[in-house]
């Protein structure tokens, strides 16, 4: 697979945007004391460890991957379609935003299944970096998974607060970039993460609750990433 403008197609932007919006998962800045297994704090720590050690089994236990990817994709694309004309004003050199809401809604609906499949492949290649891509789509997913690792090396996250209610919890987390080119793409971001308690008592990450709040900082980070790579 090539990169540059070829990788500038929507799936690449979507994945990189989701990476910037979910850096809290990495172990770098998540510091939790020893917790009982049936707590949201324990789940966050296990997710971070699973991603650091590339433990797919542990990740499957503590992240509802399909639910998280689908909800993030659907909310992100809905915001994109709704605000595409505003985005065209903010980023006039980006041809991708030169459409109206009706077109973008139809276009994104038409490629939803393929994009979600790509997102799933990216997770798979991230967890198994030694796997060999066998198709063009695999090549794109493999490259994006490699970029995920580059991003994650330059961000840390701090759990500010956890609000528990019946059967679920909301974790508020501040993600901070370092002084590298990658770290300055999104200097700071506050996330609200929904974790739901399963039947055996453990918590699973299922949703980013404040998608609209983080949408514009994430879009700016992705646009600046394209400039950083010289792909404008």
Task: Walk me through what this model shows.
It is a single chain. With 232 residues, this protein is an alpha+beta fold. The protein has one domain. It has 9 helices and 4 strands. It has helices spanning 4-7, 10-21, 40-53, 56-62, 65-82, 84-90, 101-127, 136-152, 211-228, and strands at 155-165, 168-177, 188-197, 203-208. Strands 1-2-3-4 form a 4-stranded antiparallel beta sheet. A hairpin with a 2-residue loop joins strand 1 and strand 2. Helix 2 (10-21) runs parallel beside helix 8 (136-152), helix 2 packs across helix 9 and helix 5 runs antiparallel to helix 7. The chain is globular. The protein starts with a helix and ends with a helix.
Give the biggest sheet: 4 strands, antiparallel
Q: What's the helix count?
A: 9
Distance between the termini: 19 Å
Structural class: alpha+beta
Overall shape: it is globular
The low-confidence parts are 1-9, 20-31
Strand order of the largest sheet: 1-2-3-4
Beta content comes to: 15-25%
| Radius of gyration using CA atoms only | 17 Å
Mean pLDDT across all amino acids:
83
């Amino acid at each position: 697979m090539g990169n540059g403008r070829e990788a500038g197609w929507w799936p690449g932007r979507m994945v990189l945007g989701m990476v910037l919006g979910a850096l809290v998962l990495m172990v770098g800045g998540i510091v939790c004391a020893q917790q009982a297994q049936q707590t949201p704090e324990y789940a966050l720590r296990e997710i971070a460890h699973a991603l650091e050690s590339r433990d797919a089994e542990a990740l499957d236990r503590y992240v509802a991957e399909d639910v998280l990817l689908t909800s993030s994709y659907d909310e992100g694309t809905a915001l994109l379609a709704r605000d595409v004309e505003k985005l065209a004003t903010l980023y006039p050199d980006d041809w991708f935003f030169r459409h109206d809401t009706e077109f973008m809604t139809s276009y994104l609906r038409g490629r939803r299944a393929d994009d979600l499949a790509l997102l799933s492949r990216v997770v798979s290649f991230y967890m198994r970096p030694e796997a060999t891509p066998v198709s063009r789509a695999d090549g794109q997913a493999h490259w994006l998974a490699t970029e995920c690792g580059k991003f994650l090396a330059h961000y840390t996250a701090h759990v500010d607060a956890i609000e528990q209610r019946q059967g679920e919890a909301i974790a508020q987390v501040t993600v901070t970039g370092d002084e590298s080119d990658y770290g300055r793409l999104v200097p700071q971001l506050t996330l609200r993460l929904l974790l739901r308690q399963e039947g055996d008592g453990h918590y699973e990450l299922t949703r980013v609750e404040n998608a609209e709040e983080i949408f514009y900082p994430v879009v700016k980070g992705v646009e600046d990433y394209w400039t950083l790579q010289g792909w404008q």
